[in-house]
């Protein structure tokens, strides 16, 4: 497919034209609701999830799999051993799910369909197994208010109690006291007939409470809003009920707030490719494939451009449009090990961490100049996230001397330690602006947790269901994370951590950074820098203010706006004919090389520099 055609196709998809219909031409219809780009046909990867994209290929030469892999019987494909007996059919002949009755891969509770869930989810009142087997044979106190508990522990619909038909296996849903009618009972709200006689119960939104030393019942209003996740965003408690509502840009659908506008896209990086998938229609497409060790990814929601960092011998920051066009090298000097990147779409700056430099940096979005935001008490900075509405930046550090999550103004002011206890390797962080929470994954403790942005509430959300979590993203009611051990992106409910499911799986390819892209995530806050005259860089600060900043080799003058050359900063002077260039070898940004404002010099032969800041040159 030509690049032009592919560009037009992806843009059309993003506008929602194909959201609810069959796959477009030149795409593979996986037959399971997914569509993948045709260029992935017969590439050896199970992109469809059911190997549909690997059908009608030339016979694959059977090769020897690694010790960490399982070999499919029919076609010889190698899949990670962690995929065996996990309830997902990864081999074409389903060989990876055969003989799993006595399998030890699951260290939690194994559903009847072979899916593995944490042991703590067994008999918790929620259906986590697709077949519901995690709620079978549970203790009798787990039946809902609308259910009757049989003596055997089985739950029965209340409508089937005292109906002159024994529905419980032990017949406990019937009895002679069923004949006592509610007309003889005094209930202030509702009454029902039971095998033990008439029983008072509440209207929806109330709870029954017995008062001590008083022969009467008290009906109390339930505060549904105190139950986490009752509403996606805004919850208003009413007498006997409650009301959910949403912030601007979202629509209420069954008490769930869904983003209005185009379909959300999950963008992620493998080591050698940037890919994306539409979250609702599951259409799956490449963004850019000529990458080398892409560690993280972010999206500028204003210009629909993807930014990513690559690590290795040629560490750099790159960008392209989300359809893969307009590739650009943003920054390729002064970096060592750039770990993560975040786009400030308001003031048009890029924030990133570099564990090699032990710094948190900010650069202009075109990479022309950079400023070191933090270098003191930084060990191994990893993830970074922005809260432009408050002018704050958050980052994680997994170094032994500084393990934790930190916060400061986006200008570097007001540094604060948010978390420093019971945290080891905080790999990924993500901010949910609708609930004012920060989520993070810990690859050492193997948990996903959250903390409210005011630091008051901290909770473990997912445990024993992650193996090496790396990057995080949150959108609507879902939490997404990449896991190195399973080569996948998983998702779960952001309030409960339940309903964990597989989103994307890459055979043998570590999924690195992930990011959800949707216009609703772009805050419409005004830019405090738009009318200011900073000579070099303008950074957002807390309370909707700004601060001018300078790149390395410059100092901010007393007027707070102009950057002056720092004569004490290491530099290299180079001449080219009649021009003299000032090079700061340790600085990031293309402005590390700049021309000195010297005129009428003529052709220069040699240069000499006096420590008293005097420059000497000889003419040819």
SSE layout and pairing:
Layout lengths: L2 H12 L12 E3 L5 E3 L31 E3 L6 E3 L28 E2 L5 E2 L29 E3 L5 E3 L32 E5 L2 E5 L4 E5 L6 E5 L12 E5 L2 E5 L4 E4 L2 E4 L5 E6 L3 E5 L4 E6 L5 E7 L4 E6 L5 E6 L6 E4 L6 E7 L4 E6 L4 E6 L5 E5 L6 E7 L4 E6 L6 E6 L6 E4 L6 E7 L4 E6 L4 E6 L5 E6 L5 E7 L2 E6 L4 E6 L7 E5 L5 E7 L19 E5 L3 E5 L4 E3 L6 E3 L6 E5 L2 E5 L9 E3 L8 E7 L3 E6 L1
Parallel strand pairs: 2-19
Antiparallel strand pairs: 1-2, 3-4, 5-6, 7-8, 9-10, 11-12, 13-14, 15-16, 17-18, 17-40, 18-19, 20-21, 21-22, 22-23, 24-25, 25-26, 26-27, 28-29, 29-30, 30-31, 32-33, 33-34, 34-35, 36-37, 37-38, 38-39, 41-42, 43-44, 45-46, 46-47, 48-49
Detailed description of the structure:
It contains one helix and 49 strands. The strands form 17 sheets. A six-stranded mixed β-sheet has the order 1-2-19-18-17-40, with no helix packed on it. A four-stranded antiparallel β-sheet has the order 20-21-22-23, with no helix packed on it. It starts with a helix and ends with a strand. Mean pLDDT is 81; it is low at 1-21.
């Amino acid at each position: 497919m030509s690049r032009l055609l592919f560009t037009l196709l992806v843009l059309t998809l993003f506008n929602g034209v194909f959201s609810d219909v069959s796959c477009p031409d030149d795409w593979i219809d996986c037959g399971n609701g997914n569509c993948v780009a045709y260029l992935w046909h017969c590439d050896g990867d199970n992109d469809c999830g059911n190997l549909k994209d690997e059908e009608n290929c030339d016979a694959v030469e059977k090769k020897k799999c690694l010790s960490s892999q399982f070999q499919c019987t029919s076609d010889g494909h190698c899949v990670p051993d962690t995929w065996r007996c996990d309830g997902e059919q990864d081999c074409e002949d389903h060989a990876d799910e055969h003989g799993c009755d006595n399998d030890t891969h699951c260290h939690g509770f194994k559903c009847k369909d072979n899916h593995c869930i944490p042991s703590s989810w067994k008999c918790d009142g929620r259906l986590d197994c697709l077949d519901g087997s995690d709620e079978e044979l549970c203790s009798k106190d787990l039946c809902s208010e609308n259910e009757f508990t049989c003596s055997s522990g089985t739950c029965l619909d209340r409508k089937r109690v005292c109906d002159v038909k024994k529905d419980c296996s032990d017949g406990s849903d019937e009895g002679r006291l069923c004949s006592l009618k509610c007309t003889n009972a005094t209930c202030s709200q509702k009454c029902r007939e039971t095998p033990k006689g008439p029983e008072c119960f509440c209207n929806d939104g109330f709870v029954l409470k017995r008062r001590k030393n008083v022969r009467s019942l008290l009906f109390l209003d339930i505060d549904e809003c105190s139950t986490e996740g009752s509403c996606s965003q805004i919850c208003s408690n009413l007498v006997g009920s409650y009301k959910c509502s949403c912030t601007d840009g979202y629509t209420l659908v069954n008490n769930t707030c869904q983003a209005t506008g185009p379909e959300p896209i999950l963008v992620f990086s493998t080591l050698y490719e940037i890919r994306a998938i539409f979250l609702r229609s599951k259409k799956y497409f490449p963004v850019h494939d000529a990458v080398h060790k892409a560690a993280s990814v972010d999206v500028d929601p204003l210009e629909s451009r993807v930014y990513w960092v690559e690590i290795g011998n040629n560490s750099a920051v790159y960008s392209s449009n989300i359809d893969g066009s307009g590739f650009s090298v943003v920054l390729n000097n002064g970096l060592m090990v750039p770990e993560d990147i975040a786009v400030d779409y308001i003031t048009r700056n890029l924030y990133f961490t570099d564990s090699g430099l032990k710094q948190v940096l900010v650069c202009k979005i075109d990479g022309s100049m950079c400023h070191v935001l933090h270098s003191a008490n930084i060990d191994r900075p990893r993830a970074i996230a922005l809260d432009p509405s408050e002018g704050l930046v958050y980052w994680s550090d997994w170094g032994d001397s500084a393990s934790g999550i930190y916060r400061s103004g986006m200008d570097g002011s007001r540094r604060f330690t948010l978390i420093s206890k019971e945290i080891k390797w905080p790999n990924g962080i993500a901010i949910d602006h609708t609930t004012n929470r920060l989520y993070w994954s810990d690859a050492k403790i193997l948990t996903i947790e959250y903390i409210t942005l005011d630091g008051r509430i901290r909770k473990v959300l997912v445990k024993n269901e992650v193996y090496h979590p790396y990057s995080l993203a949150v959108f609507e009611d879902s939490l997404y994370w990449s896991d190195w051990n399973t080569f996948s992106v998983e998702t779960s409910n952001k309030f409960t951590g339940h309903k964990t499911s597989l989103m994307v799986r890459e055979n043998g390819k570590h999924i690195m950074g992930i990011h959800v892209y949707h216009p609703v995530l772009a805050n419409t806050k005004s830019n405090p820098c738009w009318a200011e005259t900073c000579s070099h860089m303008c950074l957002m600060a807390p309370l909707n203010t700004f601060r001018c900043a300078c790149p390395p080799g410059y100092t901010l003058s007393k007027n707070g706006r102009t950057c002056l050359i720092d004569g004490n900063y290491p530099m290299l002077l180079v001449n080219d004919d009649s021009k003299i260039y000032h090079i700061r070898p340790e600085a990031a940004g293309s402005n590390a090389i700049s021309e000195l404002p010297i005129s009428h010099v003529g052709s220069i032969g040699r240069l000499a520099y006096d420590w008293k800041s005097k420059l000497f040159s000889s003419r040819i």
